[in-house]
Amino acid sequence: MAITADDVSLEDIIPISLDFAVVEVSSSEELAVVGADTKMKVSYQEEELELRLPFGSHSRLFLSEVNRVWSDVCKTTTQAPKFEWISKYHKATRGLGTTVNKLNQHQKKEKSSDKKGTIEGEKGSNSGTHKSKAYSSPESQSIFSREDRNDLVRSSSHTPSNKAQILAMPQFGLRDNLIRCELLKNEDLYTYPEDFSFFLGTYNVNGQTPKESLSPWLSCTLNPPDMYCIGFQELDLSKEAFFFNDTPKELEWTKAVSQALHPDAKYALVKLVRLVGIMLIFYVKKEHAEFISDVEAETVGTGIMGRMGNKGAVAVRFRFHNSDICVVNSHLAAHIEEYERRNQDYKEICSRLQFRQLDPSQPPLTIMKHDVILWIGDLNYRISELDVSNVKELIGKKDFETLHSYDQLKRQIDEEAVFVGFAEGDIDFQPTYKYDTGSDKWDTSEKCRVPAWCDRILWRGKNIVQQHYQSHMALKTSDHKPVSSLLVIGIKKVNAEAYKKTFEEIVRNIDKMENECIPSVTLSKREFHFKDVKYMQHHAETLSLVNDGQVPCQFEFIQKPNEPTYCKPWLTANPSKGFIAKGGSVDIELEVFVNRSTAPELNSGKEQIEDILVLHLERGKDYFISVIGNYLPSCYGSSIHSLCQLREPIQDMSQETLREVAKMSGGENAVNTEKPLDIPKELWMMVDHLFRNALKQEDIFQQPGLRSEFAEIRDCLDTGIPDSLPGSNHSVAEALLLFLDALPEPVVPYSFYQQCLEICSNASQCEKVISMLPQCHKNVFNYLAAFLRELLKNSASNRLDVNILATIFASLLLRSPTKQDLAEKRKTQEFFQHFLAQGSS
Q: Compositional bias (Basic and acidic residues) spans (predicted)?
């Protein structure tokens, strides 16, 4: 039985009584800041919870409803709520009702500081203050984690009396997917476009602090824009920012931005997100704040090993009225010849940057799943095939059209290698890079960089018109010039009456169809074979489902008995759940991807590429899908001990031999007739290559390689063909780091980890611990440390220092068996630094 609007009201959900109280705890300074969160201290009986509410219509509606209900309770004595609606709530989730039941059953306990929790909301404001009411319990502190905080802050705010709207809320479980799909399909019936202006700005500040007003850039429009999306790159170039993602310059530049926004409007700060030196700030006109919802922010690093945040992207997604918008600020790979690396960075950002949804049953949203995408940043594409004098000559003539034809980004877009479906305005301003800092002079340094349009603004979506696209030469703080664009975007607004009528019609049709028919689908095939699966290489096959029944159907891959998930960890189905309209179809991508967590079992032969998927239709039958394949063993994900037993490439060894070696590595009895190698030959090949070719390589171990070259290096190590390693020095360096990262047991075994932390400040004790390692592990540790000391002898050329190497390698050689906190991270670095000092043995 479905929950209806008559069942649910706020006072039936939250135990609001005279024992319940809320106090505003925001400081006067915070209240004075437009865009500040509203801090609330909630108490119920003897328990307290401090939470932070984001601004927007959800929070305001929630607070006003709580305030209304508490006022009613004060006026009249009411019986304790019985929460009878919970009996209708059949979803087996940790829901709001469950928490409330636990709360009512909870006996009074003595307050203690460890029972107090804080819920961090989105960066934003709540205009106006409320003496409003909410609730708390010890149980709620475990439930309201980062992943679940929306249950209180956002979902609870939906309390309209309109039955159609409340039935549409995902937490009430009324055929969510199908209703959502039909509403989306019929969106034109209940929405209409209205224009809003978006100011987009990007500025690579080269690690500088603000030295001048940003008004010539941010207040250059005649009328105040409705939104500001401001991106910075290279906010801080210090090692502290790179290693620990901590910088005082965030506050300095944020203050400079807030002081330079258009003076004819008041703005609220919706969200600030930063990854090392890449920062995105999102402001909205105060009067539009209540129509902003579903705000999420994510980051992705594309630096070395795909993790370091010196390159990558930050992004914010939000809903404005009925339009879903995503803003991305990225800093892609540098150097004129590295356009393929930039292409790779773009693709990685698109695939890896995902936003979780309010409804946890829904898959994450990717960048491309938005109505409007705004992409800003230092994309670092350069001008090719022209020397610096030819470029400056064309700039002098203001022949930007000819110059633009040599632009790498334009060429890559024309070839559909990147930014497919995106648009960029005509460029009629001179290149924004590279200038002498503090001037408008082109680079006069020894490198004499060729001028380029590194800083760009692109967009994707319908009903978007660009009003201006320009650089701002007046700002001279950096070696880049800031760029801005003003876009007028047709945002979808909802006609409430038309929405209600459309929704109720959809519900009536679904009810009728569900009562008449049982769903069924046709599968394109039921057996899938994945041939020659390799480490960290995507393999995908498509399963097509066609709805051949008389009713829309909902599908989901379900768990088999006694298994924790619907599939093995090396397999995914995307989407794993969904719905298909009558006569419609959906393509499901079955993807096999072996990573460091799944490779060890496959390498040793304990696990095979073999699984059965169960596809379940709601109110219908189950379908069984077979997935089989063969995995090519790799040195990646194999143990140091195993690799030291193998004198031939791993793919030349029989499966039986690999099983025997794995038994030896696991301490089981097995006969070993040959003396093991001192170190794995694969490790030697990579280090030897770098020793001979890369001791003076600039930015070695800091600049990523190419994924295509990693695949060639992996194949060479696993097959012995060719004799020497292919790829650039950067690709080999990254392959070495990935090798260490994939070891099932790190170079310093887990059993020594805690001891290493305890004696990290004592050099002689650290050396003593290393002397106690298993022989092959000790050999590898000493070999790598000796190589890194050789690198440091060439620091003038390769720009490495002890801190950089300790940060990169300590986390790989000395891994924690559990999640590593910042204090432990610093201790592992201190431990490893003892072995990087010249003269260490």
A: 110-123
Distance of CA 584 to the CA centre of its chain: 32
User: Which tokens sit at 224?
Assistant: 């105040």
pLDDT per position as a tens digit, 772-803: 999 999 999 999 999 999 999 999 999 999 99
Is the domain of 689 the same as that of 566?
Answer: no
Q: Exposed, middle or buried by CB within 10 Å (0-12, 13-18, 19+), for 710?
A: buried
User: Is residue 103 in some structural domain?
Assistant: no
pLDDT (tens digit, 9 = 90+) per residue, 17-40?
A: 767 777 766 665 554 444 456 677
* Cis-peptide, bond into residue 600, ω within 30° of zero: no
Among 78, 81, 75, residue whose Cα is nearest residue 8? 81
Q: Both 588 and 716 in a single domain?
A: no
- In a domain, residue 569? The reply is yes
Phi, psi of 50 (to 5 degrees): -105, 130
Quick one: which of 537, 541, 528 has its CA closest to 627? 528
- Residue 22: strand, helix, or coil: strand
Distance (Å) of CA 253 to CA 30, 33, 123, 236, 269: 19, 16, 16, 11, 14
What token pair was written down for 75?
A: 């006026």
* 142 C-beta neighbours (distance < 10 Å), count: 12
Peptide bond into 434 cis (omega under 30): yes
Are 231 and 88 within 8 A, CB to CB?
A: no
pLDDT in the model for residue 723: 83
Q: Where are the beta strands (DSSP E) in 278-398?
A: 278-285, 292-301, 312-320, 323-331, 354-355, 365-366, 372-378
The answer as to whether 81 is a domain residue is no
Specify if 516 maps to a domain.
no
Return contacts of 172-177, CB within 8 angstroms, 24+ apart: 172/2, 172/3, 172/8, 173/2, 173/89, 173/90, 173/91, 174/2, 174/3, 175/510, 175/554, 176/359, 176/361, 177/554, 177/577, 177/578, 177/579
Helix residue ranges, H only, 441-534: 496-516
Q: Is the peptide bond between 633 and the residue preceding it cis, with omega within 30 degrees of 0?
A: no
| pTM exceeds 0.90 | no
- How many angstroms separate the Cα of 543 from the Cα of each of 354, 531, 547, 586, 626? 23, 17, 13, 8, 11
Number of structural domains (the chain) is 4
* Residues 158, 10: Cα–Cα separation, whole Å: 9
Give 469-518 pLDDT, tens digit per residue.
999 999 999 999 999 999 999 999 999 999 999 999 988 887 777 666 78
CA dihedral 753, 759, 765, 770 (to 10 degrees): 10
Greatest CA separation found in the chain?
88
447 shares a domain with 540: no
